[in-house]
Amino acid sequence: MTDSRVLLTGFPGFLGSALVERLLERGDGPIACIVEPRYRDRAQRRVDELTANVDEDDSIRLFEGDITETRLGIDDPGETFEHVEELYHLAAVYDLAVDAELADQVNVQGTRHVLDVAEAIDVDQFHYVSTCYVSGRYDGVFTEEHLQEGQEFNNHYEESKYRAEVAVQERMEGGFPGTIYRPSIVVGDSETGETDKYDGPYYLLSLLLAQPKWGSLLFTVLGSENAELNVVPRDFVVDAIAEIRTQNGSVGEVYQLCDPAPLPVPAFIDTIAATAGHRTVMLPTTKPVARTVSGLLQRYGINVEPAALDYFDHPTRYACPNTRRALSGTGVEAPPFESYADRLVEFAMTDAAGQRR
After folding, report:
1. Where is the Thioester reductase (TE) domain (predicted)?
2. 3-state secondary structure (DSSP) of residue 128
3. Is the pTM of this model over 0.90?
């Protein structure tokens, strides 16, 4: 049994680690974290980093488990987590190329298992981290009020997160105390650029860095001139969750954690290229051709993902009225991408150089 009031899945992942750190800063420890056995050593190293300057070295407590199993692979979660009042569910497969079976097993069935445990221990609030891309390829402005719109999906990742959120909202309709957060594409820290998750826009940077600065070739897909690339830094997502969860009225709500004024795709590409110091030549092409080229580049060790191309002609725009109301006057807001792009690029380039050494 643990006396922790907070339970979290998704540690020591990209968002989970940062959220645990922020909750500890706010005095919410000790925090119990469910960790897959294969990640136990990595999780312990992260615990050691986060508690190096903390008097209570047991402020993060690790419990081996698995969200794909009933009761999360824990013999008696009701007894083990008897004192838990808040449960944060972040664990998921964040991979655009994930296959359908794994996406269902982790993102959909895993979420249902976590919901079952949350109900069994009668939590006061269940915090679920979804994604803006439950929208699929919805043609228009997608708000917090939207979900089941008959949309088609770019990939199994999107569809599985959609189905998982449907499961959460169905329980909320029955009175379950849930709060849903939908980040857009999450990149590194806006102050330091720090990240350990090089996907999304980083594929574009990877392609640039594999070419000479005096002339880099990038391909653009038809329709990208009318699309937006909505990204937010990790610190904004974590700060927003930490702020919103303390507010009365957040139970039962959905919050899209997105940039309310994102850059169009061409301007986004220009910003990345200019920040990296590359002169670029844009080559218009179709997505099938671009996917073929991306696949070939992967074989040569260039970190690009063909599935990411679907976001360069993405028809959906995101609005976040609930989030803007909740964060009004708090000082927490999504910064413009141009204001921190240099830090993202500098960190990624430095990290890449270190890995080459």
Report:
1. 8-241
2. strand
3. yes
